[in-house]
Amino acid sequence: MSKRPVVLVVMDGIGISDNEFGNAVKAAYKPTLDELWGTCPHTEIKAHGLAVGLPTDGDMGNSEVGHNALGCGQIYSQGAKLVNENIETGEIFNTDTWKDLVANCKDGKMHFLGLLSDGNVHSHINHLKALIKRAKEDGVKEVRIHALLDGRDVPETSALTYVDDIEAYMADLNDDNFHACIASGGGRMTITMDRYEANWAMVEQGWHVHVLGEGREFASAREAIETYRNETGVVDQDLPGFVIAKDGKPVGTIEDGDSVILFNFRGDRAQEISLAFDNENFDKFDRVRVPNVMYAGMLQYDADLCIPKNFLTQPPKIKYTLTEELCKHNIREYAISETQKYGHVTYFWNGNRSEKVNPALEDYVEIQSDVVPFEQRPWMKAAEITDVLCAAIESGNYDFLRTNYPNGDMVGHTGNFEATVIGVEAVDLQLARVKKAVDAVNGILIVTADHGNADEMYEKKKKEDAPIKAKTSHTLNKVPFIIYGADVELKQDENLGLSNVAATVADLLEVAPNEHWNESIIKK
Ligand SMILES: O=C(O)[C@@H](CO)OP(=O)(O)O
Ligand SMILES: [Mn+2]
Ligand SMILES: [Mn+2]
Fold first, then answer.
1. What does pTM read for this prediction?
2. Which residues does UniProt call coiled coil (predicted)?
């Protein structure tokens, strides 16, 4: 086994683009990254589409699929693809879970809760449409949609496109025996879709509008969105919660005897609301009223912890992870990030498993994230992460250490160019410190990213004189892969991607790669 520790840095959301327009990575002053790129073995690797198990090369990368691929060294069909196939073959509707959900709400309502867009990161509107249609065919009489508005995986103010689309779809299906409509909603960064326990108050607010029907009332989702936009000027992801009411009564509170389906397939932001419905000993906030419903997820979001208990699609069973392999060789692992990305370097990295493979060999550290608009604090907790990481590197207690700096991504999602430049610079400043700590222990440093975001901060202009529009979503761009401190030569191959990194780490640790992994990036 190698005596040289390996440190891997994921610069979340920092992709590569030659385009200067709206490129916060290029615009940033980042001497350390530039020096590493200029003097060390490096290449560009794929982080989107088929290379990370998504349905098409038109699908941008995201943290879940990116960290899964990094941590398991293989390409698995991911939730987006598995649900597509499950719906196409009709298998989803042959499951006992679907049949039970339908039977359960015979005299009640079927509720669909989830992210209303075609972003394909957490959900897809086509999946929702297929479920509503089949619910009607199977005899469900009342359907209610609880619509989380996106603007983070799709254009920043596109909510009405999806609301109009789903309402027209439901209007076509509605008749004397079937009625579907939107019952509640709100921006995904305001209600319901918190992750890693960063802010339970978001989930509590979601519970109030979706379940209890408590919140500001509007006659339609369109009215809610337009009113809030006029009053606050906020973009879709930040719109406050709303309740749709008719004659002074909410149209779709969640009641005993109803069925509830969370139609998101991605796990991080689906777990907390699932626990609120599913966990008998739930104590994160006062739910006021807990309806006796059958609840199911589109996927199971954590198979070890059984969250949720019922689900419609089997998640990918990710095997032969890097952590499993390294544990076999008694390699001591360390993972650290701040709350917003903590699960990325633990749960996602280890194939959506939150339990450790071998607690004696693995240490995980979470630095508490602030609950603030990140464009106001683009440095986030990068310095605090580094303080603790450098101490861990220098302790000599670990052979493989990994971290995720969220700035390029979390600030990139705000659509604020200037703040994102500062976010990238904050990461660069910390890279210099990590590099120094790596030098002090004669270690090896890998610098890479999980997908792009900060590299394209403006939507592509359709016309030269069109106004600049902020872009909040991820990109299709490749990401950097750099090795510092090792005398190696890297392959330069169009097809290399994030799934080639695990075998590369194993090479550097002088451990034989698992036979199921994709090839190492190091030339032999
Ligand atoms: O914030 C999130 O949930 C996603 C975007 O939908 O970003 P990331 O994949 O980088 O976590
Ligand atoms: Mn990411
Ligand atoms: Mn992101």
1. 0.97
2. none
ipTM (interface predicted TM): 0.99
Torsional class of 333: left (φ above 0), alpha (ψ -120 to 50), beta (otherwise) = beta
Q: What angle do CA 51, 53, 57 make, to 5 degrees?
A: 55
Is-contact 300 97, C-beta < 8 A? no
| Nearest atom in ligand 1 to 121's CA | 6
Q: Give the distance (Å) from ligand 3 centre to CA of residue 303.
A: 23
Compute the C-alpha angle 488/490/496, nearest 5°.
Answer: 150
In short, whether 258's Cβ falls inside 6 Å of ligand 1 is: no
Task: Give whole-number Cα distances, 226 to 80, 159, 160, 219, 393, in Å.
Answer: 30, 10, 9, 12, 51
Centroid of chain to Cα 405: 15
Per-residue pLDDT tens for 69-125?
A: 999 999 999 999 999 999 999 999 999 999 999 999 999 999 999 999 999 999 999
Q: Which residues of 314-328 are buried (b: 16+ CB within 10 A; e: fewer)?
A: ebbebebbbbbbbbe
The answer to whether residues 212 and 194 touch, using CB atoms and an 8 Å cutoff, is no
CA 474 to centroid of ligand 1, rounded, Å: 8
Question: 293 — phi, psi (to 5°)?
Answer: -120, 165
Ligand 1 and 121: CB distance under 6 A: yes
Q: What domains, with CATH codes, occur in the chain?
A: 6-77+317-508 (3.40.720.10), 80-313 (3.40.1450.10)
Ligand minimally distant from the alpha carbon of residue 196: 1
Give dist(CA 424, CA 14) in Å, integer.
8
- CB contact set of 203 (below 8 Å; sequence gap of 6+): 191, 192, 194, 272, 273, 276, 284, 285
